[in-house]
Amino acid sequence: MASSLRCFLRTGKNAVSALQRREFHRTLPVAVQVTVRDALNQAMDEELERDERVFLLGEEVAQYDGAYKVSRGLWKKYGDKRIIDTPITEMGFAGIAVGAAMAGLRPICEFMTFNFSMQAIDQVINSAAKTYYMSAGQQSVPIVFRGPNGASAGVAAQHSQCFAAWYGHCPGLKVVSPWSAEDAKGLLKSAIRDDNPVVFLENELMYGVPFEMSEESQSKDFTIPIGKAKVERQGNHITLVTHSRYVSHCLDAAAVLAKEGIECEVINLRTIRPLDVESIETSVMKTNHLVTVEGGWPQYGVGAEICARIMEGPAFNYLDAPVTRVTGVDIPMPYAKILEDNSVPQIKDVIFSVKKTLNV
Amino acid sequence: LKVIIRTLMVLLNHPDFILMPLYDGARVVVSRSFADFTPQASFDIKKCDVHRLEEGPPLKAELTREQGLQYYRIMQTVRRMELKADQLYKQKIIRGFCHLYDGQEACAAGIEAAINPSDHLITAYRAHGYTYTRGVSVKEILAELTGRKGGVAKGKGGSMHMYAPRFYGGNGIVGAQVPLGAGIALACQYQGNDQVCVTLYGDGAANQGQLFESFNMAALWKLPCIFICENNQYGMGTSMERASASTDYYKRGDFVPGIRVDGMDVLCVREATKFAADHCRSGKGPIIMELQTYRYHGHSMSDPGVSYRTREEIQEVRSKSDPISMLKERMLSNNMASIEEFKEIDVAIRKEVEDAAQFATSDPEPPLEELCNHIFHNNPPLEVRGTNPWVTLKSVS
């Protein structure tokens, strides 16, 4: 064990195989640290290899290796046919991607950020989402729209909007919001294999964050089902429901609260639409308290939808307090750091809201 | 006498036998056989203006008797189908949007004659003609307009959302179909199947930004896309001069070559489309065709169509440039068919359309159980919220 550890420290990169070689008497589950960016890259690489109808198009995805380096190495491996750099014409290339999907291909259409998807939103909603229904099942649209969503750091109002509520509003779309590297890989693979339009909301601030990925998740057939939330942390006193980056905030808040004897159950939604209400209800019926946490604006948002659904379902009778929403501040995103920091939920806001909801 | 009687019986029973009345009421026996008709003729067609091309489509078109009758049949069917739709709309049996195609039949018929069934086509909302030429029956089209379960989209799409294999609708958002068409062409290129995509839009859509985005990418990547502007001179109620700084729609692609075509002549449309398809299939990239055509009806059934143009203008086009009359006269004056044959075809089409209308008015509406189906493809059944929390509906693929 000591020698393998030395080996690991020295070489670093062959750590995994070194560990495996040493432990010949039994097979340990081998986990690796993978950033969200690399997980997304792996997912696309594996799906491009698996199905020749899959291709990626978007601005700077090919020769630039991706604006955020998510598609690094793919153009070198797959070439011009499968990885396509587009001009800066969102409405045009999103429409082209939808048309290609209608004619039998399986495009991944990258928006450099989802803010730019507003230029193309007609193609996403009217051409992609609604077509299967309008054609009574004759014309399917197997497409993935992906890219970073929500606030970043210092990019100001036009580059910081969260679109979970906008896309989550529309029937015919599936809307996915991964948090961890495993989420990113498993859900993106599912999205690409799904025969329907999927809006895949990534988060730029999460791209560089490493997560431990189980051995199972390293398999080329590892997928995570769309539409199912995950309980990231068990707890009895209060349920925190969240998605994307704010799962980290909730887990951090839960760690702090645990020291005060408050045990939070943290649910990672993973999918915005279809919303896994059952998982939330099951948890609320156990904890009797609910706080939703999101980066988007409060009005008509994801948290608002969860409140409405809880009220309409069996969990309402188990609530000991009204549901609390923790959201972004209802303003366009400012630039100055102090202002920006105070425009999005912080860990202290989650802690505060939990205590208020529990009346402690 | 027996011989005479037998001959008369043979003549009377012959399919080409017609009794023709003369002016003074006397009847004369006349017999015509197929051998009398010209099997094929060559017609002069209008020269196409070209943009960024060395040469354009040929100046002559060959037409066989069979082709002529087929084009006539197709155009007349579309004409009668659209007029029937007009009637049903005025009876309030069709509701919502209804954009009629009468006057423009030569475009749909000519394009279909020049491409293969394996090629692809997408258009905007004035789509009934193309829905027919791409293979959907009159019955299924009218039943979709009347919103019945026998409609081509089971009553869920309506006038602007009809689909068929290799026919991608029917699109309601002006101009949105053009990037879609370029995408279909990309799929053809990607799959290396030598197919082309015909992508249609109107003079009104010709100013949309997404068209220029599509032209750019199609030209960059040499997509096998035939962009066709069906210029019927009016975008809803706005004439082309009032909407477009340049009305040379065949030139608007700038770096994309273009041809301007007489859209009222089915042969001109056919030859131009053949030329365009060859251009695309040879890997030269996209091409634009402007079809100069005309619609007799207003923009839609809620537009009488005479507030922004004169009745005289409409009448003049009807009398001088009607596509169906033009083809018929050409064939008659070249002895390629008889008036009676055309009459027979008309009668048969009238019946077909009548039967289709009968079906479209008697077929039941889609069952409420179908309401939430077809949200997702290849998906396990899901629950859909109804209008209130106690109503949970089921959706299957």
Automatic annotation (TrEMBL), chain A:
UniProt lists the gene as pdhb
A Pfam family of the record is Transket_pyr
The answer on whether this UniProt entry bears the keyword Cytoplasm reads: no
Sorted alphabetically, which keywords does the UniProt record give? Carbohydrate metabolism, Glucose metabolism, Metal-binding, Mitochondrion, Oxidoreductase, Potassium, Pyruvate, Thiamine pyrophosphate, Transit peptide
Outline the extent of the Transketolase-like pyrimidine-binding domain. Answer: 34-209
Q: Which residues form a coiled coil?
A: none
**GO CC term, one of those recorded:** pyruvate dehydrogenase complex
Q: What is its EC number?
A: 1.2.4.1
Write out the catalysed reaction.
N(6)-[(R)-lipoyl]-L-lysyl-[protein] + pyruvate + H(+) = N(6)-[(R)-S(8)-acetyldihydrolipoyl]-L-lysyl-[protein] + CO2
Whose protein is this, by species?
Dicentrarchus labrax (European seabass)
Enumerate the cofactors the protein uses: thiamine diphosphate
* Protein location: Mitochondrion
Please identify the protein, giving its name as recorded: Pyruvate dehydrogenase E1 component subunit beta
Q: Which PANTHER family match?
A: DEHYDROGENASE RELATED (PTHR11624), PYRUVATE DEHYDROGENASE E1 COMPONENT SUBUNIT BETA, MITOCHONDRIAL (PTHR11624:SF96)
Q: What is its main location?
A: mitochondrion
Extract the InterPro entries matched here.
Answer: PDHB_mito-type (IPR027110), THDP-binding (IPR029061), Transketo_C/PFOR_II (IPR009014), Transketolase-like_Pyr-bd (IPR005475), Transketolase_C (IPR033248)
Q: GO molecular function: any one?
A: pyruvate dehydrogenase (acetyl-transferring) activity
Query: Does DNA-binding show up as a keyword for this record?
Result: no
Q: Which GO terms describe its biological process?
A: glucose metabolic process; pigmentation; pyruvate decarboxylation to acetyl-CoA
Quaternary state and interactors: Heterotetramer of two PDHA1 and two PDHB subunits. The heterotetramer interacts with DLAT, and is part of the multimeric pyruvate dehydrogenase complex that contains multiple copies of pyruvate dehydrogenase (E1), dihydrolipoamide acetyltransferase (DLAT, E2) and lipoamide dehydrogenase (DLD, E3). These subunits are bound to an inner core composed of about 48 DLAT and 12 PDHX molecules. Interacts with DLAT.
Q: Function, please?
A: The pyruvate dehydrogenase complex catalyzes the overall conversion of pyruvate to acetyl-CoA and CO(2), and thereby links the glycolytic pathway to the tricarboxylic cycle. The pyruvate dehydrogenase complex catalyzes the overall conversion of pyruvate to acetyl-CoA and CO2.
TrEMBL record, chain B:
Residue ranges occupied by any Dehydrogenase E1 component domain in the UniProt entry = 75-368
Domain of life here?
A: Eukaryota
Say what the protein does.
The pyruvate dehydrogenase complex catalyzes the overall conversion of pyruvate to acetyl-CoA and CO(2), and thereby links the glycolytic pathway to the tricarboxylic cycle.
| EC number(s) per entry | 1.2.4.1
Q: Name one GO biological process term.
A: pyruvate decarboxylation to acetyl-CoA
Q: Which UniProt keywords apply?
A: Carbohydrate metabolism, Glucose metabolism, Magnesium, Metal-binding, Mitochondrion, Oxidoreductase, Phosphoprotein, Pyruvate, Thiamine pyrophosphate, Transit peptide
Q: Name one GO cellular component term.
A: mitochondrial matrix
As its record notes, the protein acts as a catalyst of: N(6)-[(R)-lipoyl]-L-lysyl-[protein] + pyruvate + H(+) = N(6)-[(R)-S(8)-acetyldihydrolipoyl]-L-lysyl-[protein] + CO2
Q: Name it.
A: Pyruvate dehydrogenase E1 component subunit alpha
NCBIfam families the UniProt entry points to: PDH_E1_alph_y
Q: Which Gene3D superfamilies match?
A: 3.40.50.970
What organism does this protein naturally occur in?
Dicentrarchus labrax (European seabass)
Q: Which SUPFAM superfamilies match?
A: Thiamin diphosphate-binding fold (THDP-binding)
- Enumerate the subcellular locations listed in this protein's record, separating them with semicolons: Mitochondrion matrix
